């Protein structure tokens, strides 16, 4: 391929990626950052800029928690393509986030009322200062923020359900009170430390595993305890671990 043809193909690809990232960020100037290191990634995994602000999509959702302001979007975008290529349904249970992997489910808790909803991230946004998540109309209605427009929330990444190899297509769970959950009680840069803690927890609780993941080019060894068949049981165990001194613990859903 000659240089001119390569540039033409790269420009066409970039325009396609810009289209896919448009989502609820309509009206903003969006540019996908395509480099030799990111060229093999799916479009929604690549770093991108919106109005000059750079965003780096996360490759790992485990342990993700965030507090901030939630908003919602509706009729203006109903029927349009979302960032992962799906058609936006304002009455569904979905949401837009700037960096979480597309296809991952998150639990959104209204910090003012305690109401909760579970939504699937399938879009990018909101590109408004101070806002961390844009809910579909259906999710916002269940959370009780349609009239107010915004609310302070906490979001927690839960995992995937029925995802394909690329992680972009998932089937909505009936609820998160059934499944397979564990409590992550620690993460170590040295595997032997993780294995030592896992062995101790295994003798107490019957099951403890060490999950290996790469974060910012370094390996982390995460200790996960238990195999709870409901989120309620996992959260009860979580409280026990926090009381026992594992203050950074949180629940993870096995995929």
How does this model look, in words?
- It is a single chain.
- This protein has 4 helices and 13 strands.
- It is of the alpha+beta class and 255 residues long.
- It folds into 3 domains: 53 residues, no CATH class; 95 residues, Beta Barrel (Barwin-like endoglucanases); 73 residues, 2-Layer Sandwich (Alpha-Beta Plaits).
- The strands form 3 sheets. It has a 6-stranded mixed barrel with strand order 4-8-5-7-6-9. A 4-stranded antiparallel sheet has the order 11-12-10-13. It has a 3-stranded antiparallel sheet with strand order 1-2-3.
- 36% of the residues are buried.
- The N terminus is likely disordered.
* % residues in beta strands: 25-35%
Structural class: alpha+beta
CATH architecture of the largest domain: Beta Barrel
* Number of structural units classed as domains: 3
Q: In whole angstroms, how far apart are the ends?
A: 41 Å
Mean pLDDT: 77
* Order of neighbouring strands in the sheet with most strands: 4-8-5-7-6-9
Note the overall shape.
globular
Describe this structure in a few short sentences.
The protein is built from 4 helices and 13 strands.
Based on the model shown, name its key terms.
255 residues, alpha+beta, disordered N terminus, six-stranded mixed barrel, 13 strands
Blueprint (SSEs and pairs):
Blueprint: H1 3-22, E1 30-32, E2 48-50, E3 53-55, E4 65-73, E5 94-96, E6 105-110, E7 116-123, E8 131-136, H2 137-143, E9 151-159, E10 181-188, H3 191-205, E11 208-215, E12 218-228, H4 231-243, E13 250-253
Parallel strand pairs: 4-8, 5-7
Antiparallel strand pairs: 1-2, 2-3, 4-9, 5-8, 6-7, 6-9, 10-12, 10-13, 11-12
